[in-house]
Specification:
By secondary structure, the protein is an alpha+beta fold. The protein has a domain of 36 residues.
Amino acid sequence: MTTLRMPAAVRAVQAAEAPAAPRSVVLGVDTHKDVHVAAVLDHLGALLRTGEFPARDT
């Protein structure tokens, strides 16, 4: 039985051309009296962005 293997260069090109898997993100909001703080984490737990927003009565 003969096993054929794909050359590494071909595998690398195929991997580079493959569409990226969709990422999921998590948004967390910490509410306070005067300001709310939000953080966005990616699917691996890496911090993507933070922000502060004033807490207002409407």
